């Protein structure tokens, strides 16, 4: 997926699902924890220097693993680059749980699994495919036989 800087800055200014100042450590060896404003917008996690309007970086929350490191810390690592791990320090255990949950729910894959699950349930209860009314072709539809599989709460792959 390709993005230009102007598009990313524009997206970072959209209303966020969550935003907070968190401690953040990047993936490079020797990186130290720095306070950053972190914003979850759609399936991007933007991070900013405190009191700056433009993001200094963004993480696309796809093909990654979210893990709870300890009570107040979670990490995001990318499946194709396991060594590329970002660590976030929250102010409380509850805040950490909220961030993990929100990040998991922001993923396209999570939304796709939910669509499949609810489509299957509607089909089971009514005998009708709820997407037929929108003229979605058979080959473009998700498989009705698939269902949502629960992932462990502490670790999740997006």
List keywords for this structure.
single chain; 158 residues; alpha+beta; PH-domain like; eight-stranded antiparallel β-sheet; 8 strands; 32% strand
Write a short abstract of this structure.
The chain has helices at 5-12, 93-106, 108-126; strands spanning 18-25, 34-41, 44-49, 57-60, 64-70, 73-78, 81-89, 155-157. With 158 residues, it is α+β, with helices and mostly antiparallel strands. The two termini are 16 Å apart.
Molecular structure report:
The protein has 158 residues and is an alpha+beta fold. It has two domains: 102 residues, Roll (PH-domain like), CATH 2.30.29.30; 31 residues, no CATH class. The protein is 26% helix and 32% strand. The chain has an eight-stranded antiparallel sheet. The chain starts with a helix and ends with a strand. About 8% of the residues have low confidence. One of its GO terms (biological process) is retrograde transport, endosome to Golgi. InterPro entries: Boi1/Boi2-like, PH-like_dom_sf, PH_domain. This is Pleckstrin homology domain-containing family J member 1.
The named CATH superfamily of the largest domain:
Pleckstrin-homology domain (PH domain)/Phosphotyrosine-binding domain (PTB)
Shape annotation: globular
Which strand order does the major sheet show? 4-3-2-1-7-6-5-8
Q: What CATH architecture of the largest domain would you give? A: Roll
Secondary-structure content class: alpha+beta
Q: Order of helices and strands, N to C?
A: HEEEEEEEHHE
